[in-house]
Amino acid sequence: MDLDLIGLGSAIVDFAPISLGVPLSEVQGFIPFAGGAVANLLVAASRLGLKTGFLGCIGDDEFGAFILRDFEKEGVDISHVRRVEGVSTGIAFYSLDKKGERHYIFYRFPGYSDPESMLKTEDVDVEYIARSKAFHFSEAMLRKKSSRDAVFKAIQVSKEHGVLVSYDPNVRPDLWGDKKEFKEMQRRVLEFTDVFLSTADELMLITGIKRLEKAVGRIMTSGPSILVIRRRDHYRVVTSDLDFKAPILKVKAMDTSGAGDAFDAGFLTGLLKKWPLDKAVDLGSAVAALKIMNVGTRKGLPRMEDALEFIKKRRVSTE
Questions:
Q1: 36: domain range?
Q2: Can you give the pLDDT at residue 120?
Q3: What domain count does the chain have?
Q4: Angle at 24 between CA 21 and CA 30, to 5 degrees
Q5: What's 202's domain CATH number?
Q6: What is the pLDDT, as a whole number, of residue 21?
């Protein structure tokens, strides 16, 4: 099967709160949603019409079965998902404050509930990646040497076969014991990255530079040909000959979890369809806006026609 987009990362179960605007200790109940940054992106892109596939490991428990059912329902190829015997799937609980901002607690215990770290180089099917248009991954797969080697194999295959390499770090700095190793891994992967999707804070953390403009300059000389920075009030796109900002589509946020993943899916979809970069940003912005109006990591992710209709209506309302 030839795919548009393959994602390598973690797939977990997110427990969304039924009580809003209160801290985690006061939440009265939770609703499970299949989650994980790369997994969310693939589902969002699939709803937009791309042919997507997940490459990675999950536990052999009921939560793993839950994730697989959700992928299949969403049309994401699972032929290269490995269930790790005797290992549980990672889970996360989160609360939402009155502004819709989420506050997470992750439960991933080494050797018990971190199946993503058990991805091996032999799990990376060269032909599977070589026949796709784009390969996307996250920082989660760089923390352990075993999965790190698999990531670099997948990147190498992508570069050798002209597959677009996309990276959104989705950084969890507390999960790195060695900060020097963290920065070295970021430097290495950026050398092979075509599209780098990040927040301003992540950009400065990865480069170790506190001035944003200098951090942008460092990134653009380290490998990526397209840099997209997500900020609270705008998106910024930087290439060798472009540097522009696009305002976010402002909506009432109910749940910001997965917003970055949703934007990435829309932007990459536009990019793979060879749209102008500003139109790709518009699509990403619309997908993110529609997502955050709903509670749940994937609830509200639109089909392409819904996203385009939303953009059209917002454009008319501002004229």
A1: 5-307
A2: 93
A3: 1
A4: 90
A5: 3.40.1190.20
A6: 92
